[in-house]
Amino acid sequence: MAPLIDTFDQQLTSVYESALASGELIFTASENHKSKETEYDIECDICYAPSLAKKPLGILPKVEEDQTTSSDRPSTPVVKAVEKTNPFLPHSPALYVTDAGEEHKIILNKFCIVPRHFLVVTKEFQPQTGPLTPNDLMAVWSTLKAVKNSRDAVAFYNCGSRSGASQPHKHMQVIPLESPSPISELVREVSKRRPGKKENKPGDLFSVPFHCINHVILLPDPAASNKDEEDILIEAYITLVDAMMISIREYAEQEELTDAERMLCSTAMSSFAYNWILTKEFMMIVPRKQEGLGPISINSLGFAGMVLTKTTEELEMVQKTGVMDLVSKTGFVFHQERTPEQEQKNREMQQVLETQMGSALSSL
């Protein structure tokens, strides 16, 4: 796809300010509480925004007057059906920024707590349960590169019913940030060379210290790897999905699992639910076991180290538990640490899958 215009960042800001002034976009200021976590002292973000508790869910009752009532009393509103509204078809013209290729459009998030938070949406309806396509990857990648006036930007995709997705229409999201995201800081720290540990290099697959299954891959520089951006993104995505499938199979082999957990593994293999994160430096995937914990819904941003709370009870719960511990409970957590033999088996399976990747790439 053609790259976004150089003035995209300026256009994004202009549309954001106009939509905010007109009331078409609702920005909610939030209190940001820091939670220092992991051995690397990463500062996770706990946002407290009570106003968002009133955010519409996109499901509106269809109300019609009861025509059978007598003339001596007012007609009684009757809820005849429940209709789901799609905010992307059609989208609000005031929130539209630009197109991102032939298949995607960029619109602002109507309810945001981060300025200039925008969505990369398929122009035609596609389900939020589907895998990312090469065009999806390139559309969101082009927006990441086009965001200029921010210190960091995080793209993410909530796939499936347990991922924290709020709309069934396929959309990726991007948040420009004024400081490095917690997950970006964590990946950089984990990737550093340390005594007894080698440095992670582009193309390496590894995990970061959430307690649940997660996989991260560093993205190589196209100029240094002799690969174009599309091939790099597709290869990284397929590698992560393969690693996720292997890990869920290993999880399902645990003797300690209950029947309900085994059933969930079976469901997870046939109906994926995962969070996906992309920055200019890395790509990450986290399979999901459940949508939230108590009253708190978790999406991809939870695994970026950022959790949204809407009540004081939720805020206190996250502060007490910790961001990373809390979000890990919504993923697949092994009952016991994997043995070196299991890790070796995992590496061997991954190598087999990687040898098959050439044919997979050629079929896309």
Account of the protein in words:
It is a single chain. By secondary structure, the protein is of the alpha+beta class. It has helices at 8-22, 134-146, 182-191, 222-225, 229-252, 259-270, 300-303, 312-321, 323-328, 340-355, 357-363, and strands at 26-27, 31-37, 42-48, 59-65, 77-84, 96-99, 104-108, 111-112, 118-122, 152-159, 171-177, 205-206, 215-218, 274-278, 282-287, 292-293, 296-297, 306-309. The strands form five sheets. It has a nine-stranded antiparallel beta sheet with strand order 6-7-9-11-10-14-15-13-12. The chain starts with 7 loop residues before the first helix and ends with a helix. Residues 58-71 have low confidence and may be disordered.
Describe the protein's topology.
Layout: H1 8-22, E1 26-27, E2 31-37, E3 42-48, E4 59-65, E5 77-84, E6 96-99, E7 104-108, E8 111-112, E9 118-122, H2 134-146, E10 152-159, E11 171-177, H3 182-191, E12 205-206, E13 215-218, H4 222-225, H5 229-252, H6 259-270, E14 274-278, E15 282-287, E16 292-293, E17 296-297, H7 300-303, E18 306-309, H8 312-321, H9 323-328, H10 340-355, H11 357-363
Parallel strand pairs: 1-8, 3-18
Antiparallel strand pairs: 2-3, 4-5, 6-7, 7-9, 9-11, 10-11, 10-14, 12-13, 13-15, 14-15, 16-17
